[in-house]
Amino acid sequence: MTYNLAPFLTGFALSAALIMAIGAQNLFVLRQGLSRQHVGPIVLFCGAADALLITAGVSGLGAFLAALPQLADLLAIAGAGFLGWYGLRALGRLRAGEAMAVAQGEGVTLPRALAATAAFTLLNPHVYLDTVLLMGTAGSAQPVELRPLFIAGAVAASFCWFTALGYGARMLTPLFARPAAWRVLDGLMGLTMLALAASLVWRVVG
User: Fold this and answer.
1) Helix segments in the chain, DSSP class H
2) 134 vs 104, more confident
3) Cβ distance 19 to 153 under 8 Å?
4) Which of 2, 36, 83, 103 is the most exposed place for a label (fewest CB within 10 A)?
5) Bigger pLDDT: 177 or 48?
6) For helices 179-205 and 24-35, angle between their N-to-C axes, nearest 10 degrees
7) What DSSP letter does each residue of 121-167 carry, written as one string?
8) CB count, 10 Å around CB of 168?
9) How far apart are CA 175 and CA 21, in angstroms?
10) Higher pLDDT, 158 or 128
């Protein structure tokens, strides 16, 4: 029993360590959680996307991507463009005094929210480097019969994290009743996304 539990815990711990770092996707889920807009579908999308990518990585996609560095460069350029655009939008909300608009019901539609979630998830090269390549390598090191347990642990960590982030964000509602808190969050989102965009461009040209 202990032996069979080990790959589950390994997958859970590795996945949790990779997804908990502050990044564009996490900040977006946090903001949607604070505004209580489409939280369920967004959490489900993030968890399901991770499940597919982790399974694909363990099944051999990670090794395939490692042999195609040009694809990683294309993803980096596309991701940099999206992150740069969204980062400028976040900073623009500060200038336009729109930091509290989302809390006043002027939010995005479900299709637009899911499209943004998909972009944050799939246009981020680190998703493929971490979720597919690294998780795939670690999962492939497990005996074949134990790989499903590794995948299950990794997927469980992803769903637990995004559920906690999306629904737990409302515990911060009293703090974000103040416009200044939304401005700080939007400023953090804008600067983080611009920094990530710059790092992706540097990765390609450098």
Assistant:
1) 2-19, 24-35, 39-56, 62-66, 69-96, 110-122, 125-126, 135-140, 147-168, 179-205
2) 134
3) no
4) 2
5) 48
6) 160
7) HHS-HHIIIIIIIIHHHHHHTS-GGGHHHHHHHHHHHHHHHHHHHHH
8) 12
9) 22
10) 158
